[in-house]
Specification:
Blueprint lengths: L1 E4 L10 E4 L9 E10 L2 H7 L16 E9 L11 E5 L8 E5 L3 E3 L13 H14 L7 E5 L4 H12 L3 E6 L2 H10 L3 E4 L5 H8 L5 E6 L6 H7 E9 L12 H6 L3 E4 L7 H14 L1 H5 L7 E6 L3 H9 L6 E5 L6
Parallel strand pairs: 8-9, 8-11, 9-10, 11-12, 12-13, 14-15
Antiparallel strand pairs: 1-2, 3-4, 3-6, 3-15, 4-5, 5-7
Helix pairs in contact: 2-3, 2-8, 5-6
């Protein structure tokens, strides 16, 4: 098969479309012929040499995919050759085939095509696990989403609105904020010329955000704590703004607030399977009912992964950028 390899860490040009051995499904795994994958910022960090896959995972980038099962490994039940699926991966999505633990498979939601669903697993699992399973967002509360026009952001807006929360977002352009509003966002903050702490407090009569989903990390830490409501929950899922920040413990104590920080990739298989099962139970019906949808900016051939990553690095997209795999001849 062919896959995107990284012979040496570096810029986008470090991504090489090359012929590699086919993967073999192990115990509890299936082999998926990939139709599409999606670009995540973790893939960019891996290309740069900063985020290696966990032991035993595919060395190729790609944290999600869609495709068809072409082989079922030992110990797998409930899935068959020919099933159309999408999957949460620890790596290997930028390839024509990938071995996937059966617990990380999801069926294709009714009404969506097989390419579209490549945009779903990573964002749905990240948002559901952090905003709902850990932070317990409730109807009537306020959710602040940083990077509202990203793949994670567009999913968080829709899921927040689906349970009756008020949703605030930050983004860097009017076009992106307008799109967030179309998805249902109530409070729109241009982080380039507005203070999200002041804007969120103003829009909530001084209360602040009950849950904050943060992709920035260190650079937003102090302001996020100031933007939290009493009993607020800050969920950190990214480090785009750095890894070391100063935390005002007094402010956190005064608000009886909590901070969590998670990633999906290195979690044990059982934890990932539990998250995938929760997404199938709670998110998939919302998608099939037309309340939540994948947001796809554009599709590029998988061999052009370098161009796709350049686009994502420059934040020149809304939603997800898909990589479409060439289909192998039988």
């Amino acid at each position: 098969m062919y896959a995107i390899t990284i012979p040496e860490p570096g810029g986008p040009e470090a991504l090489v479309w090359d012929e590699v051995p086919d993967p073999v499904p192990g115990e509890g795994e299936v082999l998926v012929e990939v139709v599409a994958s999606a670009v995540n910022r973790a893939d960019i960090l891996q290309r740069q040499g900063h985020y290696n896959p966990p032991p035993g995972a595919s060395v190729y980038p790609g944290l999600e995919c869609s495709g068809r099962i072409v082989e079922v490994g030992p110990g797998v039940s409930g899935w068959s050759v020919g099933d159309e699926v999408c999957a949460l991966l620890a790596g290997g999505g930028y390839a024509q085939k990938v071995a996937v633990p059966a617990g990380q498979l999801l069926p294709v939601p009714e009404g969506l095509d097989l390419k579209q669903v490549a945009a779903l697993p990573e964002v749905a699992c990240t948002v559901w696990s952090n905003v709902f399973m850990i932070s317990h967002l409730r109807p009537g509360e306020t959710l602040l989403v940083h990077g509202g026009s990203s793949g994670i952001g567009t999913m968080a807006i829709q899921l927040g609105k689906s349970i009756g929360a008020k949703v605030a977002v930050t983004a860097g352009t009017k076009e992106k904020l307008d799109f967030c509003a179309e998805l249902g966002a109530d409070i729109l903050v241009n982080y380039r010329d507005q203070d999200f702490v002041a804007e969120v407090r103003r829009a909530t009569d001084g209360a602040g955000a009950d849950v904050i989903l943060d992709n920035m990390g260190a650079s937003y830490l102090d302001r996020n704590v100031r933007a939290l409501a009493v009993n607020g929950r800050l969920a950190i899922i990214g480090m785009q703004g750095g890894v070391q920040g100063e935390l005002n413990i007094g402010a956190l104590l005064g608000k009886r607030a909590a901070i969590s920080a998670t990633s999906l990739r290195a979690r044990p298989l059982g934890e990932k399977a539990a998250i995938v099962a929760a997404v199938r139970e709670h998110v998939w019906p919302l998608i099939e009912g037309g309340h939540v949808r994948p947001v796809v900016d554009r599709e590029l051939p998988m061999a052009e992964a370098a161009e796709a990553q350049r686009l994502v690095e420059a934040s020149g997209h809304i939603g997800k950028v898909l990589l479409v795999a060439p289909q192998r001849r039988s």
